Amino acid sequence: MPERPWKQEERRAAALFGGWRLPATLGRTLDFESDAHVGRVRHVQRLSLAQLEALAEETEHLGVEVSKTGVVVIKRRAGAGCQTPRLVVMTETVWRRISAGDGGAPARLDPSPQTDNETAEANRPPMKRPTPAIVRETIGVLRLAGTTVRVPVLVRALRDRTGCSRASAYRAIHDALASGAIKRS
What we know:
Elements: H1 5-16, E1 20-21, E2 32-33, E3 37-44, H2 49-65, E4 69-76, E5 86-89, H3 92-99, H4 117-123, H5 132-144, H6 151-162, H7 166-179
Parallel strand pairs: 3-4
Antiparallel strand pairs: 1-2, 2-3, 4-5
Helix pairs in contact: 2-6, 5-6, 5-7, 6-7
């Protein structure tokens, strides 16, 4: 049985970074790992900029957890006979680490208690629950795309855009309704 194209892309991305593919059966969200990098691979026909941004941020945080840089490798499927370039995407923070010459190894978050509020704010993980404004904006994007906006569709879009959990997406919709940012239709 031939190997699936997405699995081949994961192997190529791992080779690009001198690493190895991580099988999905391990239950991890990462697709490959090397000595200095971890990454996610997407072999897609379409991927919105918002989805790409969320994916890059999530991968950056996964990399920080294991003291490696997190990157996203994307290969667009354009159809039979159409070649597309492989793209390597990372956040600005990851790029600054790599270009600083320290090999890209991110510093771990300091678990010690903080006395300075500003330092504590900088070490706090990003908020995962989307704000009512993000919910309203996501609904607008879905409507522009001609999608019928139903709760499960909105939950999926919020999860793709922000990387939040399913429960957080539902709670964000509830909060947006309660605040009046969105209305039932």
